[in-house]
Write a structure and sequence with these properties.
mainly alpha
């Protein structure tokens, strides 16, 4: 067998492993872990809307809430490992492509790379929290956003960089919301394995949850653009401050209630993806 044939055989075996049960299990564990985080963030936001908590409605607040439960340390480690699985799954998509007819395109691989980097960061923060049990949950997302914005504004062309990042986040939020409303996730689900009632439930959680998630991203991006235009890092907001902003609208806390409920639904949708997504 010549060198070219050996290389081709090696690539085939690597691709088969990447598509095998290990990667599939990692993907499903990661989607379930994402569901837990969104459900907890949504639940904390609901409590904020009704004035029942001072906890941060972000990843740090969710981790702190988990740590206070029975077997909290075990749950934190399981959550972190699940998110590592999510990062590994996205890495396999970078290397071998994702499901779908254009899964090996450069655009899909780049998107997978961005998602991989994001989940590496999230998994690291969760595992660091699990190891240290730092009650800050890795720090407030609001303070992290302000600090990152302040550092970015100090570099040459920093104002333009922050504005571009904010616009990108707004665009990402719009893209997430529109895809959810158009039910683009159908392309990635094993719809044939679902009954009519299950499919309706998945559509309710997918559309409402995706729209709420997209709205939160878009609003956070708007605040980043404002911070760049006014050259004031304090105007940048993390997830917690962004959610609290919804309660300051003319309709009062009810908009926050709707958005928070949407985030809970997105958590439920993530569990559905963990069960029925094609990997």
């Amino acid at each position: 067998m010549n060198t070219s044939a050996l290389a081709q055989t090696g690539r085939f075996r690597a691709r088969r492993v990447a598509r095998g049960s290990v990667t599939e299990g990692a993907a499903r564990a990661g989607l379930a872990a994402r569901g837990v985080i969104y459900m907890l963030v949504g639940a904390l936001a609901l409590q904020i809307a009704f004035g029942d908590t001072k906890e941060q409605a972000d990843r740090g607040g969710a981790l702190a809430a988990i740590s206070q439960k029975p077997f909290g340390a075990v749950l934190l480690w399981a959550l972190g490992i699940g998110l590592v699985g999510m990062a590994l799954w996205r890495l396999s998509e970078v290397c071998f492509g994702s499901v779908g007819k254009d899964g090996r395109s450069a655009r899909k691989r780049l998107l997978a790379a961005v998602r991989c980097a994001f989940y590496v960061f999230v998994a690291y923060s969760v595992l660091t929290f699990a190891a240290s049990r730092d009650q800050s949950g890795g720090g407030s997302s609001d303070q992290q956003s302000r600090d990152a914005t302040a550092r970015a504004l100090e570099i040459p062309a920093g104002q333009w960089l922050v504005a571009a990042a904010g616009i990108a986040i707004v665009a990402a939020g719009g893209w997430i919301g529109v895809r959810a409303v158009l039910r683009k996730y159908h392309d990635k689900l094993r719809l044939g394995q679902m009954g009519p009632r299950t499919r309706r439930l998945v559509d309710v959680t997918g559309v409402a949850g995706g729209a709420a998630r997209g709205l939160v991203f878009a609003v956070a991006g708007v605040f980043a653009v404002r911070a760049a235009i006014d050259y004031e890092p304090d105007k940048a907001k993390g997830l917690d401050d962004t959610l609290r902003t919804f309660a300051d609208t003319p309709v009062g806390p009810w908009l926050l209630v709707c958005v928070a409920a949407g985030l809970v639904l997105f958590g439920v949708f993530s569990f559905a993806m963990a069960r029925w997504r094609r990997v």
